[in-house]
Specification:
The protein is mainly beta and 422 residues long. Helices cover 6% and strands 42% of the residues. It is built from 4 helices and 42 strands.
Amino acid sequence: MSNIKRLKDKDGNDIFPVTHVNAVFDGNKSLREILNNINISDNSNNIINVKNPGNDLVALTGDNTQTDVGPYIQAMIDALPLVASDPLTRNGVIYFPPGKYYIKTPIIVPLGVSLIGSSYSSGYANPSRGFGSLLILNDITSETTGPVITFKGSNLKGFGGCLRDLTFSGNAAGMLCVLLDNVFCFEITGCVFEHLNVKRAIQTSNCNRISVRDSDFVFVGDGGKNGSFTTGDAIYFGSAGDSDVFNCFIESCGGNAITLGTDCKVSQCFLDLNKNGVSISGKHNKISDCSIKLNYYAGVFLGNNSDYTEISGCSILSNNRRNSGITNSSSANIVIDGNKWFSISDCQFDGTTSLIDINIKTSSTGYISNCRGRSGDIFILDTGNAMMKNVHYYKYNIVCITQSEYDQLETKDPNTIYFIKE
């Protein structure tokens, strides 16, 4: 994201990444002071405060109203000036001061427009309490189709916008909360998605250089309610490249915490109590310095096309809660299915009894080094062509033998871990 212009407030903090807004900012004011005092009629700044005097939203966002603000927000977006050289691009920022905003009608955000709120809500998002900018999806039903908010690009042209400091909650079952469609160079930061009944909180479609940072996702989808893990992905980068997730907390989501496409990176994230921690469907991805634990199936799942995956410096603990430690083809701390090459280094495992830490389901080529485990009976189900170096397991010896040699053993030493190789 280095080519995005970053504006600073009086404290030296980033205001937001933007390439199209030409406003003059006072470096002696904070971000909130700057945005709260911009006049909605002053188009030279290209920033709209949705609750400035004279705006219809002032009367529609009180504590006791649940009026749909979607059409009003869309009208404000459509009122931002067009860029003469590109009719698909508008200049500006839509700013949401602290308050509750009920949305039922989907919103489409074109190139060059950012949505910015005012910090987090307090605790779990709840319409009856909290502060900050809270967008409540107001029981959107099947009569409305498509994503709730779409950032719409075109042929991966420069977007340079952001979604920042907004909290999303509410019900839009089966829908996407935020869709990035043909977007290039975009940042989502400081946002909260919690108690949010949607199919996915964030999804990409043909995107590149997307960054999700410093955001929280809690109880997305069914979130394991009544033992159900069927829907509710937090971050879906299935069709995104060159993108990253950094310093995010993702817990109790009914789907995957993170799904990666190609050339993506996940670092310094906490992924707990989801269906899966990280699911990888593309090549050249990296996971580093993450805590991944207590997920229902796999901590990390590497699919058929997940070549050249690197996992390093992670604590991957006590996943596979679905089977309470019983061997399962899709459940383990790490599952490698049809992977051609992988690297796992400097990781810690601490599974429950009979839990598989690394399940290599098919013949793969990889390198496992400087890893430590404690209490699982099985460390690797099938090594394929994996090489191991400095792999330690608490209280156990490690022996690498073929399946036939293993079958011929008259007794199995309970203090020995047997690596089964081809």
